[in-house]
Amino acid sequence: MPKNRKITAAAAVASISLLASACVGSSDNGANDDPDAKTTLTFWHGWTAPSEVKAIAENVKAFEKAHPNIKVKVVKGLTDDKINQALRAGGSNAPDVVSSFTTDNVGRFCSSNAFADLKPFLDKAKIDPAKTFLPQMAKYTEHNGKRCAVPLLGDAYGLYYNKDAFEEAGITEPPKTLSEFDKVVKKLTKTKGDGFERLGFMPSYLGYETTVEHYGSQFGVQYLDGAGKSNTAKDPAVKAMLKWQKNLVDDLGGAAKLNKFRTSLGDEWGPKHPFHTGQVAMQLDGEWRGKMAADADLDFEIGAAPFPVPDDQVADYGKGYLSGTILGIANTSAKKNAAWELVKYLSTDTDAVVSFANAIHNVPSTQEAIKSPKLNNDPVYRTFVDIAQHPGSSHAPSSVNGGAFLLTLQDYALKYEKGTEKDMDALLGNNDQQVDKDNEQAG
Amino acid sequence: MSTVPYGLRAKRRRAAPRAKRAKQALRTLGFLSPWLIGLTVFFLYPLLSTVYFSFMKYDGFTAPTWVGLKNWAYVLQDNPFFWPALRNTLWLMVVMVSLRVVFGLGVGLLITKIKTGAGFFRTLFFLPFLAPPVAATMSFVFLLNPGTGPVNTLLDTIGIEGPQWFNDPSWSKPSLTILALWCVGDLMVIFMAALLDVPKEQYEAADLDGANAWHRFRYVTLPNISPIVLFSVVCGVIATMQYYTEPLVAAKVASGVIGGSGQQFEPGYPEKSTLTVPQVIYNLGFQRFDTGAACVVALVLFVLAMAFTALLMRRRSGFLSAED
After folding, report:
1. What residue ranges are annotated as transmembrane (chain B) (predicted)?
2. Fewer C-beta neighbours within 10 Å, C or N terminus of chain B?
């Protein structure tokens, strides 16, 4: 028995080792297939909601009609972890075309050659990404000048507010600066016992969508310097952001109180979202929230506006955080030319982009689509279309280590929020050191 | 009469058994070959390639390149997850495994003693073990929700402010331990089998000697079931080193980041307190494309698993008294 145990132990650990090391794959970057030949492409995407799945399926059907030689096998609901694994493994069941919601991972996809370089395809099709796509969306789909992805619709972040709660509190318009915002938050907040009956806004980094990255755009944070080194200790915008957030958290009763309240709230993607239930009066969120709120049949009216900016940046009011879905071709695909036809259609065909944007309530990612008269005219939605076009709107820079630097900063910021780390300079210095070490390892 | 020289006859005599021995060895190898092939394919090859990749920069897309000890230095000095994960794993190995063994044995003892309803209680305690880990963990996060969970609501009614459970770094591991104790059915069944196997005569002899309940347990039950206790501890230690699903699901559900908008999740919520070594391997190898560093962590885990198993086995002479 003892020997067997040893072998079991060794075998068990070896299995983990096997998993950790089981990596094969091709780095073949050639596109030699005939796009006019009969072929079947495999397209992986992450959408799961029936309306979204139906909308993408309709777009694919329209593509198949326009390209009768290409059939598309659509696989829904794929997460990034599964995509990463399939991209490495390759093979006949691996995807040819991949979409991902994690725009922060573009740097990792590009630098590792997981996605094929799209420049030759774009050049051949005479598509200039800078002129075709919205500028910020064109920017976050490349890394260090290498374009390995294109945007497939975008997400713009702004402020949703409960109009009834505003009226009840005597607030006539949404706040434009953060000092106005703080006052509005406190006005809207109603305490109950040691908790809240209604919270004006959930500022905690643990709240839904209230992450460092999403706040960062309002402050104009420069996460990395020109050399790609972490810049947070030197950037006054980072300090201003951490201070503002911490002050608001403390004014509302502290991190522990907010966290306890947070754990009592409904799921972000369900109908019991705290903004839907009225437990939170304002919410930083993407354009999809408008449709989710409409679907939830709320008993109050909602409004939308850009998220406020720091008082000294009021001229930039209207900007927001941008993100979206990215589309790329697996480097392991043997059908890159055919795959490009699908990528080109989904990402640049104006009718395809507009109909998909309308169906899933996302912001269009091309200049033509955003001007289209067919685009949804709902004023709440249009607020986000405007945010997407604002020249100050931004996404965090791409990094060889994906979004790891943002998670590290969020981790440190959370310590500051909780008060377990009080020395901000030391905290940000540690963050820079850690990010640089991680990037060096990944680079 | 044979005229074969003496030397040649002796040679033939020696050759015959040698051929027989070779045939026997071949036959033995033939019988062993399924195991040998399995060992080579599923153990030796992965182990050697893990060692190889631990010295390489390898992302799974491009050819590996030699980086010497860089991955080792990164994991042991600079990776923010490795040491917290190791500390958590050790905590769970000491506290969770011990409590599971004690609890499993306690429940087993109780159920072997009761006269009526033993079948019902046996089923009651075993059923949670059959619950899928993801569902069981999600249920526990719900039960222990600090804001709306029934446990804290109940504590509230008797004037006790419940802890934050999975949302508090000092309570997250105890919460995982409670979940592990709930799923103690596997150990209960094993201990029950062992307890029922203890010769009744030994208890009768102990009774005649005037032994009380504690003496009977200490000097009769425990020596008889000690091989099973050792088995449970070794299995528990190995399982804890591979502990992945429960802490990951608990952290994701409690933090509220369950995916959907491309929001990334850092494992170990809250404050890396639920981070375990397999999560670090997964994070490095499959999320950060850093196979080299993941292999380093896998090797450390391998060495630790071997060391703990060897340590426990070395102690067996004092432990397996029933076999002595």
Report:
1. 28-48, 90-112, 124-144, 176-198, 219-244, 291-313
2. N
3 state DSSP class of A144: coil
Give the C-alpha separation, A433 to B103, whole Å: 45
d(CA A277, CA A293): 10
Nearest to B286 among A84, A103, A403 (CB): A84
pLDDT in tens, B92-149: 999 999 999 999 999 999 999 988 888 999 999 999 999 999 999 999 999 999 888 9
CA–CA min distance B271, chain A (Å): 8
Domains of chain A: 14-155+322-389 (3.40.190.10), 156-321+399-442 (3.40.190.10)
Q: Which of A103, A47, A40 is nearest to A339 (CA)?
A: A40
Residue-wise pLDDT for A318-350, tens only, equals 999 999 999 999 999 999 999 999 999 999 999
Put simply, whether A29 touches B (Cβ < 8 Å) is no
Rounded distance, CA B130 to CA B132, Å?
A: 6
**Could you say which DSSP state residue B220 is in?**
I
Q: What dihedral angle (degrees, nearest 10) is formed by the CA atoms of B137, B140, B142, B146?
A: -130
Q: Which residues of A touch B71 (CB under 8 A)?
A: 441
| Closest among A185, A319, A163, A178 to A252, alpha carbons compared | A185
Question: In sequence order, which ranges of B40-132 are alpha helices (DSSP H)?
Answer: 45-53, 70-73, 82-91, 97-113, 118-130
As a whole number of angstroms, the distance between CA B86 and CA B291 comes to: 19
| CA dist., res. A231 & res. A221, Å (int) | 9
- Residue B216: exposed, middle, or buried by beta-carbon count in 10 A (0-12, 13-18, 19+)? middle
Q: Which two tokens stand for residue A129?
A: 């990404």
The packing angle between helices B97-113 and B222-241, to 10°, is 140
Would you call A130 exposed, middle or buried from its count of C-beta atoms within 10 A (0-12, 13-18, 19+)?
Answer: exposed
Say if residues B195 and B108 touch (Cβ distance below 8 Å). Answer: yes
B2 touches chain A (CB under 8 A): no
Please report how many Cα atoms fall inside a 13 Å half-sphere around the Cα of residue A247, on the Cβ side.
12
Per-residue pLDDT tens digits for B229-262 = 999 999 999 999 999 999 999 999 998 876 555 6
Distance, CA of B264 to CA of B257 (rounded, Å): 8
How far apart CA A272 and CA B256 sit, in angstroms, is: 13
- Side chain identity at A126, as an amino acid letter? K
Residues for chain B: how many in total?
324
Q: Measure the CA–CA gap between A114 and B160, rounded to whole angstroms.
A: 53
